[in-house]
Amino acid sequence: MDAAQRQISDQIDDATQRLLGAARVIAEPDLRQPSLLPGWTRAHVLAHLARGADAMRNLLIGARTGQDRPAYVSGQAREAGIENGARLQAKELMADLADSAMAFRTISRQLPEDAWQFPVRILDSAQFPAAQILTRRLVEVELHHCDLGTGYRPDDWPAAFAVMELAEPMQSQRQDRVTRQDRLTPRQQA
Question: What pTM was estimated for this model as a whole?
Answer without folding.
Answer: 0.91
